[in-house]
Amino acid sequence: MKLVTGALILALMSPVAFAAKLYRFKVDGQLILKDHIPPEYAQMGYQILNDQGLVIRRVEAAPTESELAAMAATEAIQEARLERIRVRREADQALLRVYSKPRDVERARQRKVDNIDGYISLQQRRIVDFSEKLERAQGRAANQERAGLEVPVEMRLEIAQLQKQIRESHSNVNLRKKEKIESTKVFAKEYARMQTLLKYPPGTLESDIPLE
User: Which region is the signal sequence (predicted)?
Assistant: First the structure.
């Protein structure tokens, strides 16, 4: 049986039938025209025709599960991007409250380095001083032992205290050296970001900056 076209169906419809809206949809490739849309076909998309057979509304087919998943994934990506922009903008604004130009970052870095280097120099001088005192204290203790005498408790405590102070000073030096390395990395990032903010507004993602 040949498929009857929608136009022919309309031509054969009575005037009474034209008084109501008609719904046109496809089922297995065949065009169907009814005065209502069956629930089982409502999700497939359809057209609504007026009493003159003209389309007055198109209802798109409901998205499939895979399409819904793709839409959700796209939305999640967009939301994640907006969140990165928000976080980046807040960080940029905080940076701009501290610095006005890239060279301000370099000045701050130099002050930090000078401060750390000064502290390290102080600790190194303390290590030398404590080491000399320790050497003298250990010498006195050795003299006591060579003389067959017991090393006094206060002398042992002095040696232990000096050894502790030397260890602490070495630990302080190592910590400040690590701090110097880490702060240098931070200042380098801030300097680079300040250079970016000379050209682009706060919140601009690195991925949105064209390669030069």
Answer: 1-19
